[in-house]
Amino acid sequence: MDTEITISGDMQTPPLKHNTTDGSDFLQFSQLQLNKLGYPQIYTWLAQRKNSIKPWSLFLNTHYIRSPPSITRLSKRIAKNIAYFQSNYFFVFIGLFIYCLITSPLLLLAVIASLGTCYKVSKWHANEGVSILGHKLSLAQLYTLVAICSLPLFLLVGAGGVLFWVLGASWFLITLHATFFNIDAIICPGEEELDKLIVEEV
């Protein structure tokens, strides 16, 4: 005896997800995680930094390298450059910090251990919560406690010297760029011609 089975219906295939590995997706993922952890201020600040990054081709364009026309104009140029390239300068600092981590294996291990501990603590806080003497600690308090406990380890691996080096190198490079980059040629080109006339008259 033959039995005929009829199968009918509409089948919908789920949309394919395209995996991308560019830096913007990673930054969006980081911002999403911070937002989920309850840090909207940091999320908003990172979003502002991302949106205000100027093109690196402009930031590193040697065509705009000019010595300041006068000492009085120098402070204004530095202020304008810092306001215009603040996000680029921030990533210069981050780049120097990453360079120090790569060239300091012990410090890199200490940072990984500290971040791993923060990740574990966030999991405990999400699942069960952590209480001390009957008081439930917030996630920010737990992170502060981890940071305090990590201080001796960071001092042991020389984090103090690395921090001062990063701050010093960042200050030097940012000041050097802000001093010699002629921002007036971009945001107000007329002032560049005025500066030339002033120099010629002097």
From TrEMBL:
<dbReference type="InterPro" id="IPR004895">
    <property type="entry name" value="Prenylated_rab_accept_PRA1"/>
</dbReference>
<dbReference type="GO" id="GO:0005794">
    <property type="term" value="C:Golgi apparatus"/>
</dbReference>
<keyword id="KW-0812">Transmembrane</keyword>
<keyword id="KW-0472">Membrane</keyword>
<dbReference type="Pfam" id="PF03208">
    <property type="entry name" value="PRA1"/>
</dbReference>
<dbReference type="GO" id="GO:0008021">
    <property type="term" value="C:synaptic vesicle"/>
</dbReference>
<feature type="transmembrane region" description="Helical">
    <location>
        <begin position="89"/>
        <end position="122"/>
    </location>
</feature>
<feature type="transmembrane region" description="Helical">
    <location>
        <begin position="142"/>
        <end position="167"/>
    </location>
</feature>
<protein>
    <recommendedName>
        <fullName>PRA1 family protein</fullName>
    </recommendedName>
</protein>
<dbReference type="GO" id="GO:0016020">
    <property type="term" value="C:membrane"/>
</dbReference>
<keyword id="KW-1133">Transmembrane helix</keyword>
<comment type="similarity">
    <text>Belongs to the PRA1 family.</text>
</comment>
